[in-house]
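Researcher: I'd like a candidate sequence for this fold, 103 residues long. If you have to choose between options at a position, lean toward the conservative one.
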């Protein structure tokens, strides 16, 4: 698994521009998770965020316009949590343990 992750990480670099923004969302699940983790690392686990703030973190991390897709996937893969009404977001405390093999 570790060797696979190294290969995926190497391939994933091709998906980033010179400003280190994701230019295309990978179709392969493992590479998508790696890309989402790169964004999740920018979210401070010590604070809560508004949807607007999370969107800005995502916007600064990608070079395409589907912010909602990335936010939904980050929630689906339990990298971030949110209140049901979407008024508050946070970094899930256990995501690094769940995705330890990807780090």
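Model: Candidate sequence:
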């Amino acid at each position: 698994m570790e060797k696979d992750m190294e290969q995926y990480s190497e391939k994933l670099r091709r998906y980033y521009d010179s400003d280190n923004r994701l230019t295309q969302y990978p179709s392969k699940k493992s590479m998508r998770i790696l890309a989402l983790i790169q964004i999740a690392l920018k979210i401070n686990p010590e604070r809560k965020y508004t949807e607007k703030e999370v969107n800005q973190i995502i916007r600064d991390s990608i070079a395409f316009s589907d912010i909602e897709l990335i936010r939904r996937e980050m929630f689906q893969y339990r990298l971030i949590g949110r209140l049901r009404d979407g008024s508050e977001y946070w970094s899930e405390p256990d995501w690094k343990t769940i995705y330890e093999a990807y780090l």
